[in-house]
């Protein structure tokens, strides 16, 4: 197993050596349609909610390429040239691009996003990965997504969301939601990427990941460079999936707290780098210190 350098920077190597993830753990992907016939997915367990959630093997539009690269970070074969961080889990895909014209533009709608979050939650996923460009929305449209995130949080689902690559100091209705883990990308020097979005809610509840030099699956059976906050979010989702595979009784909030490794009252607009192995050791230590016969019951995340 070849671990890409960016993953070593966030201490994923020992966790990946320990596990590929549990097949019983379902991970949701809100993105474009995935080219599931890519040879890099030879051993992957990928389920679709609708026929349009799968792209043809020769697709080269923005949404399909992005979704395939994201899925490659998560469940590609580890010898494929993509990370395949949690290659043993079951990936459940839900495309938010119903028409080819929308796929080429790469912009999702608020209604599609809210519907996708609800459908994936109801399909039994434990963690959802999302990295989307959304148009400026009205308050009613924001409410749709907020309600969908509430629905996910009430069922203990962790939503990992890319902070965005617009170079802004700001947040969105998604990254400000208490159930969401916003993710920013760092460069190889350990500094926030030049275009990554940062902000108060992102710094307080978010996580950073080095993405310089990361590769994943691309169109026409290829492997391509894949970076930015989309790649960073997928890395965090993969880490969450491995941790939950190893520690299935961990509550959502304690798992995310361990990954952040900082107090919830952090005031910086920039989140710290993730340390996946430290999070595992922290959670494993907590469970081993529990009295014999006591089993922790996961609590719901509250908005």
Give a summary of the structure in a few sentences.
The chain is 35% helix and 14% strand. It is of the alpha/beta class and 303 residues long.
Characterise this structure.
By secondary structure, the chain is an alpha/beta fold. It has a single domain, classed as Peptidase S8/S53 domain (Rossmann fold). The protein contains ten helices and nine strands. The protein has helices at 5-9, 13-18, 62-75, 100-105, 110-122, 139-154, 200-205, 228-246, 252-260, 276-288, and strands at residues 26-31, 45-48, 90-95, 127-130, 158-162, 180-186, 207-210, 215-217, 223-225. Strands 2-3-1-4-5-6-7 form a seven-stranded parallel β-sheet, with helices on both faces. Strand 2, helix 3 (62-75) and strand 3 form a beta-alpha-beta unit. Helix 5 runs parallel beside helix 6 (139-154) and helix 9 crosses helix 10. The relative contact order is 0.17. Mean pLDDT is 89; it is low at 292-303.
Provide the fold topology.
Elements: H1 5-9, H2 13-18, E1 26-31, E2 45-48, H3 62-75, E3 90-95, H4 100-105, H5 110-122, E4 127-130, H6 139-154, E5 158-162, E6 180-186, H7 200-205, E7 207-210, E8 215-217, E9 223-225, H8 228-246, H9 252-260, H10 276-288
Parallel strand pairs: 1-3, 1-4, 2-3, 4-5, 5-6, 6-7
Antiparallel strand pairs: 8-9
Helix pairs in contact: 3-8, 5-6, 9-10
Count of helix runs: 10
Strand content: 5-15%
Report the sheet with the most strands, covering strand number, pairing sense and barrel closure.
7 strands, parallel
Please estimate the helix content. Answer: 25-40%
Query: What's the CATH topology name?
Result: Rossmann fold
According to CATH, what is the class?
Alpha Beta
Order of helices and strands: HHEEHEHHEHEEHEEEHHH
Low-confidence runs of at least 5 consecutive residues: 292-303
> How is the largest sheet built, in terms of strand order?
2-3-1-4-5-6-7
Quaternary: single chain
- The secondary structure category is alpha/beta
């Amino acid at each position: 197993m070849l671990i890409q350098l960016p993953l070593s920077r966030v201490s994923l190597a020992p966790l990946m050596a320990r596990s590929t993830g549990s097949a019983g753990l379902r991970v949701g992907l809100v993105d474009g349609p995935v080219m599931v016939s890519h040879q890099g997915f030879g051993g992957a367990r990928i389920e679709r909610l609708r026929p349009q959630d799968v792209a043809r093997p020769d697709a080269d539009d923005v949404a399909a390429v992005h979704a395939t690269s994201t899925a490659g970070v998560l469940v590609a074969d580890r010898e494929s040239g993509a990370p395949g961080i949690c290659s043993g889990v079951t990936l459940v895909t839900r495309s938010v691009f119903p028409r080819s014209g929308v796929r080429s533009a790469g912009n999702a709608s608020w209604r599609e996003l809210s519907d996708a979050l609800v459908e994936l939650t109801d399909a039994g996923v434990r963690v959802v990965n999302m990295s989307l460009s959304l148009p400026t929305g009205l308050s009613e449209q924001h409410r749709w997504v907020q309600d969908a995130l509430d629905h996910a949080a009430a069922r203990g689902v962790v939503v990992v969301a890319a902070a965005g690559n617009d170079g802004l100091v700001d947040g969105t209705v998604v990254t400000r939601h208490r159930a969401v883990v916003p993710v920013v990308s760092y460069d190889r020097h350990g500094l926030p990427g030049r275009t990554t979005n940062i902000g108060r809610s992102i710094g307080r509840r978010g996580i950073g990941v080095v993405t310089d030099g990361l590769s994943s699956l691309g169109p026409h059976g290829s492997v391509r460079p894949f970076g930015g906050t989309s790649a960073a979010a997928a890395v965090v989702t993969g880490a969450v999936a491995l941790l939950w595979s190893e520690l299935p009784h961990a509550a959502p909030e304690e798992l995310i707290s361990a990954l952040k490794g900082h107090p919830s009252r952090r005031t910086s607009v920039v989140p710290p780098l993730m340390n996946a192995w430290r999070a595992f050791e922290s959670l494993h230590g907590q469970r081993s210190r529990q009295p014999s016969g006591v089993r922790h019951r996961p609590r719901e995340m509250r908005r």
